[in-house]
Fold this protein.
Amino acid sequence: MLRKNVLKRDFVDDKTKQTKNDFVDVLQNSPEESDGDSSDEELVEENFSSDESELEFESDDDGNYVRKEVIADENETSDVEASEKSDDIEDYSDDDLSDSDKIINKPDSTEIEYISERNDEYNNSDTSDEEDIRNTLGNIPMHWYDEYKHIGYDWNAKQIQKPVKGDQIDDFLRKIEDPNFWRTVKDPQTGQEVVLTEDDIGLIRRINSGRVPDSQFNEYQPWVDWFTSEVEKMPITNVPDHKRSFLPSVSEKKKIGKMVHALKMGWMKSMDDIKKDKLLKRGPKFYMLWETDTSREDMRRIHDPVSAPKRDLPGHAESYNPPAEYLFDDKEMKEWNKMSDEPHKRKLHFLPQKHKSLREVPAYSRYLRERFLRCLDLYLCPRAKRMKLNIDAEYLIPKLPSPKDLQPFPTLESLVYHGHTDLVRSISIEPKGEYIVSGSDDKTVKIWEVATARCIRTIETEDVVRCVAWCPNPKLSIIAIASGQRLLLVNPKVGDKFLTKKTDDLLSESPKSDQLETDRIKTAVQWETAEKHEQIKGVRVVIKHFKVIRQVTWHGRGDYFATVMPEGANRSALIHQLSKRRSQIPFSKSKGLVQYVLFHPIKPCLFVATQHNIRIYDLVKQELIKKLITNSKWISGMAIHPKGDNLLVSTYDKKMLWFDLDLSTKPYQTMRLHKSAVRSVAYHLRYPLFASASDDSSVIVSHGMVYNDLLQNPLIVPLKKLETHEQREEFGVLDVVWHPMQPWIFSSGADSTIRLYT
Amino acid sequence: MRRPKKYESGEAAQYITRKQALKKLQLSLHDFRRLCIIKGVYPREPKHRRRAQKGASDIKILYHAKDIRFLLHEPIVWTLRDYKIFGKKTGRDRAIKDFRNLKRRLDMMPEIKMDHVVKERYPTFIDAIKDLDDCLTLMFLFSTFPSLRLIPREQSALCRRLTIEFLHYVIASKSLRKVFISIKGYYFQAEIKGQKVTWIIPHYYPFKPTTKAEVDFKVMSIFVEFYTIMMGFTNFRLYHSLNLAYPPQFPGSITDDEDTFTDESSFVSERISCLNFDLLKTDKTVLENDDDLEIDYDLLEQDGDSKKVLRMKQEAQETKKLKNLFKGLKFFINREVPREPLVIIIRSFGGRVSWDKNSYPGGTFEESDESITHHIVDRPSMEKQHISRDYIQPQWVFDCVNQKTLLPIAKYLMGAELPPHLSPFVDHKRETYVPPEEKALRDPSLIETHEQSEEESAEEEEEEEKLNDQQLEKAFQAERDQMDDGEDEEEDDENMEEDDDEGLDENEKKRKNEKKNMAVEAGKVHKVNKRAIKKDEIEEHRLKARMVKPRHRNLFRKLIREKQEKDKELWLMTKKRKNVEADAKLKKKAAKKAKKQAAV
């Protein structure tokens, strides 16, 4: 039945749509008619949008349908409904508003009765749309009959023929001719044309304008209260209550009994209990999670847990009433304000404040933010375990014996040797320690008496004196002076007269050389006896070099000496033999810019320092023994320990390197004692002392003890910084030399003085 | 054997970026964050970042791969997924307005179980106590919150309950050690099971809303979610260690949520009133016997290292004394004083405390009680004062605790200018500058000098008065001179007698003169030029410092720089202090002058 109903519904919809369209035709036609202008196409597009009319059609069709149903079911329901009819009498009498509903509810015993009812109904309600149905097709889409000539069947089961359909011209002619054309509607069921009456048109217009369709209906009739609002004090009916209402219901009693039992047994719970349970269930439950304070259960944990560091505890500055010095003064306040863009750089993360009493302390405005940042730190900040050094700076300074225990060493400046007019590049001491020779940029060489600081002799040369070296052999009194390109061998004529004479004799006659010298040597070096005017000064032999000589050094015995010409390429280092007046070029290939050469005190070895490295050659075997790696940019000088196992190297990059030749080719210790380039270093011959001179115009005396025990490393202790030289431009102290016997030191500086420290 | 590819082993395999972790765990960033906070998983700092990031040089958030694998097995992950589904379904119900279904669903809301996480993060109880600092500080903050959009009201209610429970434990166990009033809030430090636990109670003021950019409550709420659970278990164990019943029963209506939520101020007063009651004991037969618990130090002393033992003994005695610092004292807190911190302090050191019953509930005795010893006031003056009690400012209580003695109240009287409040947390090894006030407190001998200076100032004041009253005195003396004319003769007689005594002593005088002549001239002491010696020493030290090993040189320089900065700080502070003192003196003088002028 329900399904049927739905089907029916669809039909109704279709039908109503159709009729609706027809109505639209009519309605739209009427004003057009009056205008005298019409177009069908426009009409189709217009929509009819009144709900009321639709409802009306629907209800109408429903009524028809239900009516039929009721007829079908009447036999079954007649008995029951007959009884109900009597009860509902009152309702019927009152209900005039909806007739169709009444029809649905009304049970009819006979058809006649029904018809009479229907007649009554037509009499007192509007039946304008209730027409004589001649077509018995029912509610089917009419286009099913499009192909046929007939349109359906009438009551007598005869075909209803479709009326002759005129063409558009006919329609148009009729429109012109027929004054009732605008009110003519085609009945879809019969195909007949129906002319609408005045009443019909009025009805349609009312519907279209949204008014009540019935023109007779008074919208504003006075309101009659059906249920009175007044409360009656007495009952309206006098019917006494039924006995049942006084007696307790047995079934309910049973039900309640069951409930009580269930409550008692705990099967059921009251609403309050349920609410309470819910509340109890809501919060977390706590119990004894840890059995003891320190015992631990083996559980999987995160890998290698690092606990977050605790926040710093507050200092005095954070107090609400700090000591006055913790408050910011104007300068600090300015600094604080300046760093408002980068608050993390501030010294404190808050502004210290002083309040007179606790009452005046306000809430800290950044408190919430700080807590939030801490939370962020806890879950977002990467953690790692770091070793934190908590040591004093003193701890890093190596434990060295006190200088007081390592005396004697020079501590005071005792003499100053004035006389030179330009920087004194080089000094050298007589083997006995009585005289000292100095070479200067003012092109002179001066010989001084050590004890009195008196200049004994001044030897003028033709060029800048870059190096002087006193022959270490005490039986000879010769000074080698490197002046420009010439190397002068000078007899200083000081000290033992016998010795000077002997030396003069030795140098006066040149030995005959039986060996022929190669061109390579000849072009580099020429030995000459000094000329007359130079002989007077003391110059005995002149060795002319092809390039400027930077350094000259003697072998320990005093027969051989070596010169260095940094610009000489592969002939930059030369070894000369005094007794034979012969020169050699030990290297055929240059391994770099040679800076410094040195003879080993005992072994026949030569140390050659290029800018970066030091090479040690065996002079007898004529081969490389060792190459020392300095890791420095530019070597300035060297000194070898009298025992021959340790080498001290000074560099222009502020470092001093101590090489233990037995140990390794790398420095045993690198010292950065000076603040500027180190110019020269020197070992004392007897005492365990060494000194270094630097461009920061200081001489540093250090203790350098070398033990005979091979297992014990040398002990190096800086002892004293002697800082009396004056700075000239960027030069400070240029050369340093120890006294051969005493713990005294000489230094020559850019301030054109030589100083003695004792 | 296959040669391993680059970044397949070693540090690169050890770490995993956050993006990878999210992919592996199949979680959204929100859920991952939540999981990390609850489980305590944090990013790691690799030894070689570039290697750990497979050659990428930008900084990424790296997690340990093992940690992420560990999270993979966590049941909470499933709860989080359930939660996501729950959110979708309830959202749908809400959208189609199916409220019946919605209600049914809301009852079945998935809950995250965190009990096992607490145990896993803190395998021993001591571990949990060690990590209590942040937990307490955050929970005290949350307990002041009203119900916010992102913070469920149950959470803040739970925070309130748990913090009060904790405070009760601190009071009952007398474990409070240090207190401090900072501009940020009140710092408290308690010693629980040998661990120092520090927390902050912010200055109580109504909640001030902040922007989301500044504070994200969601993150904090997740933290609190875990902390409440942890705190609950910790409280449970702490209470049981003292034989107290847990959860404690309070006389007030702290558990009545409806009341406390409606009125914030009434809640606060309830909260404080709760603190003023003793807790129920589970076992009433156990007496409070602290002595039993203490270590027998005499036994320890035999082991040697007696200095250490002595110090320990001394410390134990001090703490014992501190625990009963306010025993027998009765405090009354005036209306304007913040009560909460004071109640905590006074109660945990054995004092009794009360306040005006009419304004706030929970007061135990009346203001008119004659046995009250201290009345805490924070206003310049009061109309009605009792003679039997001392009127002091709240700072006295704090300073007493930090000093572990009852300080003289002279400086803390009502309306007096308070001495500076010093922090008890300062590490003397790290902090170079020590304010003179602290020095005085540390060394009692310095206290006297400090007071002496005050006395001097008092004398000065007296002198002032003298000067002021000079004219009066002159007049008075003139009168007295006239009166004393008669008595002068007697004085002359006395002088005569003294002369006689001198005659007798002439021999002695001679001897003395002889002695004087015999005196040996004092030899001149060889003066050592201290400055020169010091200079030499500095020079020597500098040379030595140059011998620092090359590999330590940078560290050495850093340490030296730090030291120099510290010295500079010290110098700056002392200078500032001097300036301040000089200013104060000048002001005093100016005031004096003004007074004098006024007198003239």
User: Anything to note?
Assistant: The longest strand of chain A covers residues 715-722. Chain A touches chain B through 89 residues (CB under 8 Å). The mean pLDDT of chain A is 81. The domain at 417-547 of chain A is CATH 2.130.10.10 (Methylamine Dehydrogenase; Chain H).
